[in-house]
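Good morning C.,

I know you're traveling, so I'll keep this short. The sequence:
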Amino acid sequence: MSKFEVYDLETLSNLFTYTGYDCSTKTWRQFVICDWRNDLKELLEWLDTLKKEDYYQVGFNNENFDYPIIHYILNHRQELLYKSGQEVAQDLYQKAQELISESNGKQYNAISDRNKFIKQLDLFKIWHYDNAARRTSLKDLEVCMHMPNVEEMPIDHRAWCIQGDEKLVLSYNKNDVEATYLFFKTTLGQTDYSLYRGKNKLKLRGEIRNAFGLPCLNYPDVKIGEQLILNLYSEKTGMSLRDIKNLGGTHRDVINLKDCIPVWANFESKEFKALKEKFEKTTIRSSKGEFSESVIFHGIKIDYGTGGAHSSAQPGVYEADDYWTILDEDIGLA
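The tokens, ready to paste straight into the viewer:
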């Protein structure tokens, strides 16, 4: 069975902290590097243990931020061990600022899996929160998960810290790890929220990886489907993935919608039977605006066009309770 450590870093101008929660032993570990306290040696020993015992480190946006800093520490260990705590903290702060600057420039900071010293699970990527339309911060999740304590960083990262400030930062750091751990449990299906209860995203990704050789542990759901189809098509045709992606779409002057309806699409309701008959008689010659149909089913109007199907509930006050859950779904086909 895999071992997991949920972790988070804080990088201030002259203060660095590391907080980790070992899910196997239920143990907390915190390390500080600064002028008045230098836990670099102890941190390196723990990171070596994680590597030796084949742990997964679990974080939120750790692929692009936290792990590259860990990777830098492990790659430059001898050099850093000869520096003072303040010099190390300043080096790590500079590295963090470089990563943030590169991210703003849309560059990709993640280190390839084959080059990592410690395996990573990034909840930010698994839940597709790195998508512009779905972007969600850890603070947003803390509110949604009804955490009793939602904190903002107590000290500006540019401030010059003094002895005692590390206690404030460590407390904040631990709160973020607690939030990440709670969200990790949701990812494993260990939640009371009915939509995700019992649905282990990690187990699913492990099974797909083992069955198809797809390195998808940090893939969002849609990318798994897309990449799996590409790989299977590549195996079947002998074409490379690059050649398949360069094929582009197939131009068609006309599209008969009856050819797009799967054989298993049969309906019992008169509303959808009538809609299917209209589809079977319809030919599309333009990709936008040519086709428009609607159906009202159980009081809900569903509009169909060449861009897909859209529906919305009537304006009003809707309340969730122990029996009913309010969902707002946007479904796409890759």
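Safe travels,
E.
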